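Annex B. Sample input.
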Amino acid sequence: MGLLGMILAAVLVAILLAFIIVKFLPLKLRWIASILLLALTAFLVSKIYYGIMEPIIFNKTKVVKYSKVVDKLKIIRDAEVKHFEVTRAYTKDKNALLKFIDTARLALTETKTVVEKEDRGGGIIIDVEKKKVDTIGYEPVSKYFKGKNYKEMFKVPGVDGKEFDIEVGTVEKVPGMVVPTFYVKTDKKDILKGMNESLLKQELEQVATDQIKGEYVSVGSLDEVSTGGNWPPAYDKKDRDQEE
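Annex B, continued. Sample output.
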């Protein structure tokens, strides 16, 4: 029975009690009916209050849960991006990605503009500016994960024994140009397990731009070249505040 059904049932019972009190109940017993009516009123008020507050509580709770998940996805995304910078590929091997952070080094480059002589033929020699990229050193990839609990980044917060699913693939960005892609996801229903079933069903069908759309919280894509997440900008506000 829904909230509206319970309210209507309570109203009908209240009307019935009032009728019985007036028509049949002796004066000396009416105090019992009054107590019953007060109890019924309290029940009715509590159900109305809970019916109003439950969606609000649901939304606040889901944001707290999702924020922890998004934080983990950002770490995985950063690890995949660094892996691509070094190896020119993404990986779905979680152990390999952890080892990469611990051991890999990222080349530091410097781009200079140099002037070179170019023979155009017929005795014509001109100066041409060209970009020259030099490697000037290396730095550990682990530097970029300082202060981040990357060792636990694959564990879905609040869901015992659950890890993020990672897939890799390729997309033909333009004819003849194949680009690697990655996709990391976890189910919303696992994150919100135990919460109101009706509200959870609505959550899995979200399409609003200020919400996390669909059945998953995810980052990356197998269908297009993207390292973005499917969460709205509000989930990145904490990062912007820290940078400021």
